Amino acid sequence: MSMLVNSIIIVVAGSISALLQARPRWVAWQRRITGTLLGAVTVVLARQIPERARV
Q: Residues 11, 17: contact at Cβ < 8 Å?
């Protein structure tokens, strides 16, 4: 089952890659959105530090 799921993910990722290569503006937006989401996750995780662990 996991092999089937991984195979589907690989095929879909390849299709998305081909789509993004044909549209460079989409790649720029994808990078911006991904960076923003990673930054948000960083802030959320940083706020979850227990009080006794803070320096």
A: no
Task: Quickly list DSSP for 6-42.
Answer: HHHHHHHHHHHHHHHHH-HHHHHHHHHHHHHHHHHHH
| Distance, CA of 11 to CA of 18 (rounded, Å) | 11
* Surface-to-core class of residue 32, CB atoms within 10 Å of its CB (0-12 exposed, 13-18 middle, 19+ buried): exposed
Q: Which pTM value belongs to this model?
A: 0.57
Q: Quick one: 10 exposed, middle or buried, by C-beta within 10 A (0-12, 13-18, 19+)?
A: exposed
Q: What is the pLDDT of residues 16-37, one digit of tens each?
A: 888 888 898 988 998 999 999 9
